[in-house]
Fold:
Amino acid sequence: MRAWGDDRVQRVIGTLLRWGVILAAAVVLAGGAMYFRSCGSTIPDYKVFRGEPPELRVVTGIVREAVSLNPLGLIQFGLLLLIATPLARVAFSVAAFALQRDRTYVVVTLFVLAVVLLGLTREGSNTVVPPDRFAPMCIASDAPPRSSHP
Amino acid sequence: MNSLEFSLLVWLGGVAAGFLGSLTGLGGGIVIVPLLALWLGVDIRYAIGASLISIIATSSGAAAVYVKDGFTNFRIGMFLEIATTVGAMAGAFLAAKVAPSAIAVVFGVVLLYSAYQSNRPRPERPETAAPDPLATFLKMDSSYPTANGPQSYRVSNVPGGFSLMFVAGTLSGLLGIGSGAVKVLAMDQVMRIPFKVSTTTSTFMIGVTAAASAGVYLSRGYIDPALAMPVMLGVLAGSAVGARILARAETRILRIVFSLVILALGAELIYNGLTGRI
Structure:
């Protein structure tokens, strides 16, 4: 096995970031195309903050919406992949520094990974997701605005 | 303006944000938040959610190139991420307790300060400087590619840079921006790291800082998929172009142009925040 020099670590990190971004963009693009097909001619309204519906706020809800091919759920899933890319980079760095037997940086990267994972799960876990609720896809120009969500 | 036209406009803004963000190390948020909140009338919380996505996209898209090219110093980045991620958690926690108009004013002040700082002369101290014991222990001294071949450099004042990085992290968690300006400042001015290494390492870091607060914003409903979609796709395209020309780019010129832009936008954000229009 070749040694894990810094050059090799850099190449792998670069490749990892590139593929994470490509994958995330492909999913978002697919969701976006579906979204425009059904909602492209509606009027967007972001002036008043309503907040996203609960199913698009937590990982489990997003995955469920993405699997059922809800365009907004699919886009949100692609955004999750994008958010996961730097995390995957940190996780790989832990392994790479371990292979280099660089204890200082194993501790450093493990700490960063722990803080980021804590940030991702801290609030998402206690949000209640009502079952079988489908996210409103778009507001038709002649329909009343969607109701606010708690 | 229907959704398709609106998205196309936002996509173009994303391209500009990704391009400038990847070249300057400032992150895309500094363009996306004012674009959405001021020009397109988007509620600042949606704007901040979209900007968080733009930061992660700029970071991962451009860093993929910078890391391979050898500009990014990933050890410096990883070590300083301790400060930025903990700071980001603190900032995201504070964001729920502060009014949007106050956030806008703070953001405006940050923009003005960034504009001022980015035009100050930045002395570089490669090689000749005495090795810093802490930087040596953390294996931070390295080299980066230039037109005349690899140029080695030394890193100084690690504790000072680390402290400023905590502030940078808090700002990004509070405002949804990468606060790349503060990161670049910490590395360039305090730690005396070469400018291109500072900006590319900042670009490398801002994605992780943003990801640390993404969970909080996601669960509060700030991240709207239909709004974030054109932002993300535009930013990826723009940062891919920016990252490819960094090696040859005259960053001094870009920095002047960009600092003028953020100067204007910062003043506008402060005005709108104070008059309650946001």
